[in-house]
């Protein structure tokens, strides 16, 4: 069972989010990385699954350029490396780089509602904000 969850999460994370050559820029042109976690048990983090589903149902997944997995059993996983680099201790989180060609700092969001409001410029539905 653990192996199934890990393989499913990895396949989901590695599959292309959109057709090759097609890029949906966030409304403000940022490059966005979504980091979700696989627990020590091999199961996906509950909150990460919820946020992923909310991204899909709201249509906001089209603005995510990259999905990384923070595998708690693999300190070399991309998500763990990003968490270490940006000193983030919880998942899911979003790494938002400034638009190409613009100066600015990379920003990390650990709160989905704040990410949506500040980066995507949309209001978060009350039900999604309460989760």
Task: Annotate the secondary structure layout.
Layout: H1 2-14, E1 31-38, H2 46-58, E2 66-71, H3 78-85, E3 93-97, E4 107-109, H4 112-120, H5 126-130
Parallel strand pairs: 1-2
Antiparallel strand pairs: 1-3, 3-4
Structural description of this entry:
The chain is an alpha+beta fold. The chain has helices spanning 2-14, 46-58, 78-85, 112-120, 126-130; strands at 31-38, 66-71, 93-97, 107-109. Strands 2-1-3-4 form a 4-stranded mixed β-sheet, sandwiched between helices.
Give a nutshell description of this structure.
The protein has helices at residues 2-14, 46-58, 78-85, 112-120, 126-130; strands spanning 31-38, 66-71, 93-97, 107-109.
Helix coverage percent:
25-40%
Q: Based on helices, strands and strand pairing, what is the structural class?
A: alpha+beta
Query: Can you tell me the residue ranges where pLDDT is under 50 for at least 5 consecutive residues?
Result: 11-24, 123-131
Instruction: Please give the largest β-sheet.
Output: 4 strands, mixed
Query: What is the helix/strand order?
Result: HEHEHEEHH
Could you list some keywords that capture this structure?
four-stranded mixed sheet; 4 strands; 131 residues; alpha+beta; globular; 17% strand
């Amino acid at each position: 069972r653990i192996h199934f969850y890990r393989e499913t999460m990895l396949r989901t994370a590695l599959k292309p989010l959109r057709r090759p050559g097609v890029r949906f820029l966030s409304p403000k042109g940022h490059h966005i990385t979504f980091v979700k976690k696989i627990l020590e048990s091999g199961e996906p983090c509950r909150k990460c699954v919820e946020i992923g589903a909310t991204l899909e149902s709201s249509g906001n997944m089209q603005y995510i350029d990259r999905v990384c997995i923070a595998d708690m059993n693999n300190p070399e996983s991309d998500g763990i490396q990003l968490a270490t680099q940006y000193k983030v201790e919880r998942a899911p989180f979003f790494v938002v780089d400034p638009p190409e060609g613009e100066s600015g700092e990379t920003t990390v969001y650990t709160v989905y509602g704040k990410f949506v409001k500040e980066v995507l410029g949309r209001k978060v539905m009350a039900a999604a904000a309460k989760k």
